[in-house]
Structure to design on (324 residues):
């Protein structure tokens, strides 16, 4: 086998040929668009650290959700900003919190749009940690109780899927049990199963003011140097009742996505996070690369690695480019 019997360029010779032999194709059906909810009326504040993203009050988030539907995007991932922070992050499960109000407004406006809600305490606690702090340490089991309470409040408001992003041990089990006990048998769980302690969350922490006030997240988020632990985390979350499991971030962790896809049968989601998105935008702004082409290449490669679902701030851009 060799040249000239085989010339690899034959199958690259035209656009039609490349389309014919292509193995992965990004679809609008794969994408989830993150939105940021705050309280109030008529609020649409640009988030300075993240291009094209806004803090939106429940009335305007419903308008945005309708646009997302009109662009063919099947799902949103909702984050919330609290009115006030406290030690336990109690605004996270407030019946009238920004997320809870927004879910209701979105479901009234566009009932078919899938509403996935991020469940975590970091934006709600004064410490900026994803769990409650006792004696300078994050208390795992006490945090799980509060996460379950938060998840229940989202389900009661009408969320379709709960997405815990805190990385406490056992939280998927706590949440599943709490949902079952309260009759929310059909509310799904998409767990941030393999979530790494990454520097690429920087722009997001500015957006929701959730930077830890002491220490870092390394005692609960994973060490970027390991992928075996990611397989254990994912297996445990599936056992505890996760319907979809996520790898996060995406670009530096394509090997983890690939391993997860080969090993597990449930849908695999990948989060193309704020720092990855803004890294491309910043390079484009500096004239170093072409923004849309680079963005589509990144998304396509995340798909190729094995992601069934991609959470991305570029979902609207991708929808336009895919001609959806
Ligand atoms: C909350 C949470 C974070 C992100 C999603 N959920 C930040 C963090 O863990 O510090 C990051 C999303 C992004 O960077 O786009 N735990």
């Amino acid at each position: 086998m060799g040249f000239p019997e085989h010339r690899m360029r034959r199958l690259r010779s035209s656009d039609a040929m490349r389309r014919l032999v292509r193995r992965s194709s990004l679809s609008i059906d794969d994408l989830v668009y993150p939105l940021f909810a705050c309280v109030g009326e008529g609020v649409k504040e640009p988030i300075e650290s993240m291009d094209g993203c806004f803090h939106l009050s429940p009335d305007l988030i419903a308008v945005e959700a309708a646009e997302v539907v009109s662009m063919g995007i099947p799902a949103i991932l909702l984050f919330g900003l609290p009115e006030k922070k406290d030690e336990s992050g109690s605004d996270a499960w407030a019946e009238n919190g920004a997320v809870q109000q927004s879910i209701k407004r979105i479901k009234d406006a566009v009932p078919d749009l899938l509403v996935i809600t991020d469940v975590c305490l970091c934006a709600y606690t004064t410490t900026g940690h994803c769990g409650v702090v006792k004696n300078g340490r994050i208390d795992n089991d006490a945090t799980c109780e509060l996460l379950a309470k938060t998840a229940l409040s989202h389900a009661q408001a009408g969320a379709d899927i709960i997405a815990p992003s805190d990385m406490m041990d056992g939280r998927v089990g706590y949440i599943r049990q709490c949902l079952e006990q309260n009759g929310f048998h059909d509310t799904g769980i998409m767990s941030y199963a393999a979530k790494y302690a990454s520097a690429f969350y920087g722009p997001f922490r500015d957006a929701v003011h959730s930077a830890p006030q002491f220490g870092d997240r390394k005692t609960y988020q994973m060490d970027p140097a390991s992928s075996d632990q990611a397989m254990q985390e994912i297996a445990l979350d599936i056992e505890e009742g996760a319907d979809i499991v996520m790898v996060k971030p995406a670009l530096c962790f394509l090997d983890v996505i690939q391993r997860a896809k080969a090993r597990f049968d449930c849908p695999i989601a990948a989060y193309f996070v704020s720092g990855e998105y803004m890294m491309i935008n910043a390079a484009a702004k500096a004239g170093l690369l072409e923004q849309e082409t680079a963005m589509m290449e990144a998304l396509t490669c995340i798909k190729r690695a094995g992601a069934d679902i991609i959470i991305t701030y570029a979902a609207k851009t991708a929808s336009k480019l895919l001609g959806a």
In short: The pocket of PBG is lined by residues 118, 120, 122, 130, 165, 201, 204-205, 210, 273-274 (CB under 6 Å). The CA atoms of residues 127 and 213 lie 5 Å apart. Residues 140-157 form the longest helix (18 residues). The chain has a mean pLDDT of 97.
